[in-house]
Each structure stands twice: as structure tokens, then as C-alpha cells.
TrEMBL record:
EC number of this enzyme: 2.4.2.1
GO molecular function, one term: purine-nucleoside phosphorylase activity
Organism listed in the record: Mesohalobacter halotolerans
InterPro entries per UniProt: Nucleoside_phosphorylase_d, Nucleoside_phosphorylase_sf, Pur_Nuc_Pase_Ino/Guo-sp, Purine_phosphorylase
Pathway(s) this gene product operates in, as recorded in its UniProt entry: Purine metabolism; purine nucleoside salvage
GO BP annotations, alphabetical order: nucleoside metabolic process
Protein name: Purine nucleoside phosphorylase
Amino acid sequence: MMKYLKETTHYLQEKGFKNPEIGIILGTGLGQLLEQVDIIHEVSYNHIPHFPTATVEFHKGKLIYGKIEGKTAVIMQGRFHLYEGYDLLDVTFPVRIMKRLGVKKLLVSNAAGAINLNFKKGDLMLIDDHINLLGGSPLAYKGVSKLGNIFVDMSCPYDKSMSDSLIEIANKQNINLHQGVYASVLGPQLETRAEYRYLKTIGADAVGMSTVPEVIVANHLQLPVVAVSVLTDECDPDNLEPVNVEDILATAQQAEPKMVKLFCELLKQI
């Protein structure tokens, strides 16, 4: 792992990825933030040594370096998932690279289904806490202790200062920003009616297939992180309709400008 981290970091530094302040992970169907970025360098994932490659057709696969709201940022245009056949070390490898490049804060987005039926399709949810249902941890591997203390405190995994700022920004911008608990599941199939009932019972407000591994590793690295879900469908087990991926992606794109506004305003403040 250490050898891979050093080689990948060196490669990106040679490509001009120098001293970034901010790391950003863009979730499924979420790429409009890049319209606000003055792109300086970009590299396809499949050209980066030891980097996984996005395998799902609607997931982009580029690492981007540029300026946004006066900050230098490294942006993942597309992330990796366990359901693509990767393991938790693969999925979280980019977060470790961002930290080694110099990133001081991490902003994460995802597309998720609304379990809380008070939340509607197209709304945003600030993740206040999460439930890990992936069946593993990115810290439960031999040798990871060489990268830091593996017994990471998760009593407050999402940075309170950045979260409070997003709430304040949402209020000022008249953006409806819910707060809730995100459950991360393996996928790639969506949930059954019984599974949606189970998720509601255990306290989830939204469900998706990402984010939690990256957040665990960010906490391992003592990298402050904040995350926002774009709610792309309503998961009502009593009125469940067949999944339509095209509709999910369209909803993400329609709702995304609100998330872009939140992130841009936050970047002005941090």
C-alpha cells in the first residue's frame, strides 16, 4: 500500500497536481460543479498508476485539478463502488491520495433514495450521520495500521463547522436542505420493499451505495469531511414503482444546481 501511495502521488505531482487545498468527490450523475472550475490539469483514471477505473457507463472517470472559488482543488469526476468488483481499499485509495497531495478538507456528494417519506425526489440532504451496511471496513486490513490509528472515533464523522455553514448557506439561499442519516448498502440491485422497511426501522433517512467508506478513511486521516445527498427517488415500500435509472439520473441533474450553489458558497468561506 505504501509503495502504491508513493508512486501514485509522485505521478500526479509530476502531472502538475501541486498543493491542492480542497478535495471533491462527485457522485452518480453529478458533474455540473465542473462548470464552475478553471481546469488546469485532468487525467483519466486508467492512466493513473494503481488507480481503479470506473466501470459503469454513466460514471465518468477523470481526476481533475483546478481552481474553484479561489481554492485549488482535486476533483473526482466519478467514484468507485464495491459493486463494481473493487474492494474497500480500492474504493478509498483516492481519498488517501488526496490527503498525500495536500488536501485539507473534503466535500462529497452522492445520489440517494429517500427513505424518510417527508423528503421528496429532487430534495437535498446534508448527511449528519451514517449506517455502514457494506459488510466491511476500509480499516480492517493487514498493514493499514501503518497509515494511522485504526480505532478511529466516529462519534461525529461529518465536520460540524462545514455542516453548520452549509445549513446557514441553505437558509440564506432559500434551498431546502434536510438533515439525516445515510445508509450505505452494497448494491448494485436496489432494495426490496422489506429492505426499505428495515432501513426505516433502523433509522436511515436515505440509502445509497457509496460515501461511507470514503468518510471512514477521511476520519482515519483526520481530514475534515462534509457530504450532501441528492435525493433521486422516493422509497415508499407501500407504493413502490419499478426502478428507472434514466429518471434517477434526470432527477440528479435537475436538483444538482442547488448542490453546486451550496458547495460554491461553502468554498468561499473555508
